[in-house]
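Subject: for your reference before the review

Hello V.,

The reviewers asked for a structural picture of the protein, and I figured it would be easier to keep everything in one thread rather than splitting it across files. Below is the amino acid sequence we used in the manuscript, unchanged from the supplementary table.
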Amino acid sequence: MAVGLTGCQWTDFGAVLRKIHDTDPPEWLRRLVPLETHTPSWLGTVANLETWALDPSWSESDDTSAALASFWRDRGEEIRGIVRRATELGAALREREPVLVLCHGDIHTDNLILGPGARMSIVDWDAPRFAPRERDLMFVVDSRVGEDMINMGGQERFFRGYGPVEFDRLALAYYRYEWVVQEIGDYGERILWRDDLGGGPGWPRWRALELCSSPEMWSRRPITPTRICWLGSCRRLA
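And here is what came back from the structure prediction:
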């Protein structure tokens, strides 16, 4: 979505997401949708990236790789802290028996398409799962989903449509930390192991490095409307 939501559209968005969360799929569909494990899926990638970054014989093969290695060495303690906290929060959640609902998994406003007659479509259904509703609500609760969220009172308007709900702050914190782990692993993987992306300034690998090492990634302000799970949000929750 290239423009922000209006107040009414935030309310519609809340109502649509509530319908998704209240859906009771048939058994055959349930067997196709994975269950939440509360184990960050990018932990292995991040561990491999750290091993690579600390080995000069691997990490200095080109300028882009060397820049990532330097960044990783500077931020290594903080990255390890993020991974550790995500793991701890996940372990705490596994000891509970949370209510699982059908979640989209990536339901930020970039994945909304607004059509004629106030029609709203949701795209990018490549990673649905049965999970606590906080998996989706993290994109709304106390988040920074673009300036329109702040200026239009998006969270309040969203819940006019979604309806009353009690949040599990532990689950919200976990999903934000998990998202940071994913972003670090995803961008690192693009930089190191995606030869098809090219390697010089202006090419996607270099852009991935800029995003990964950007000050915004390590502050309270997101890089884009979709990048809401930065450390400021995490620290307020856990």
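For the response letter, the relevant points are probably these. The two ends are 30 Å apart (CA to CA). Residues 211 and 217 are 7 Å apart (CA to CA).

Happy to draft the paragraph if you're swamped.

O.
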